[in-house]
Amino acid sequence: MGTKFARAALGVAAAAFLAAGLGATDADAKQLRFVHAYPTASQHHKNVQWFTQEVTKRTDGDVTFQVFPSAQVMPINQELPAILSGQVSMTYSVAPIAASVEPLWGIFDLPFLFDIALDDTSHGRRFFDSEKGGGMLASAMEKRGFKLVSIAPTDYPSSFFLTKPEPVETMDGLHGLKLRSPGGRIGQLSGETFGYSPIAIAGVELVPALTQGVVDGGILPPIYTRDNKLPLKGLTVAPYNWPAVTPIIMSLAEFKSLPEKDQKVIMEVGAELSQKSLKIVEEQTTAAIKELEAGGAKVVYISEADLPAWREKAQPVWEAFVEMTGEDGKAMLDEAISLR
């Protein structure tokens, strides 16, 4: 019954989506179809609501949106191809998915590259705003038919979160563990380098995988862990990698079809959302960790004194990223290091 109901609901949502597209006229051509995979209670959706409402307000209603949350229309890995095919206008994606069409996004998978503290995301902010950081990502996406509107993270970087109340405190503690990871070549190399087995598991399958012992834990962030009540009790907090970097990506063709004044509003609101989202992450991370501790989790931190050794261990992964992405990847890596 549950599966039939879910399929029926998806069918209704898809039918409504298609009807909305077929019913468009010149008079409402500026209505943009915004899809994303996150539930309506998530910070992702709250960010989308703020963004769309602000754009509509500041364009005096010239640009409006139909928002389809919760993967109603398609799974997250189909959103970017759907933008290129003209099915949808834009999405709120995630770095590992964006990396499937533009490998430079893999920079956020690099272990210990970004120096992000619990209450200070300024290293990320400087990189997003830099011409050789966010600027190079924007240029690369335009070459592929996309407009990068905003980089608006929704969580602190991920690290090693285990089901047992025995958190990882040394590199040796990772050896032999099976950990859910975002997947991709960088994720595989990271596991090989640090001695754990990375296993790609979809979000909807994560809780069963944790409770049934398919994996020992995951490379996960604290806010997501709290909000989804994941059964994790041994938490190592550190800026290991940052898959929760979530960009708003739009069809370049649709963006260019808008009047310049509306294009300007979209980019201004996107820039404001980037700053706003980072502030929310700073405010929520410590609170999330405290709530996880109150729920019985044991939490440890990789100290500032120990971080250089972890970064040194990660060098082969950084070098592999440069080999995969060439001069642009090296320029971005050097920029991230210089902005610390």
UniProtKB/TrEMBL annotation:
Signal peptide region: 1-29
UniProt-listed InterPro entries: DctP_fam, TRAP_DctP_sf
Taxonomic superkingdom: Bacteria
BP GO annotations: transmembrane transport
Pfam families xrefs: DctP (PF03480)
Keywords (A to Z) from UniProt: Signal
CDD domains: PBP2_TRAP_Siap_TeaA_like (cd13603)
Entry-linked PANTHER family: EXTRACYTOPLASMIC SOLUTE RECEPTOR PROTEIN, PTHR33376
Protein name, entry field: TRAP-type C4-dicarboxylate transport system substrate-binding protein
The organism of origin for this protein: Acuticoccus sediminis
Lineage of the organism: Bacteria, Pseudomonadati, Pseudomonadota, Alphaproteobacteria, Hyphomicrobiales
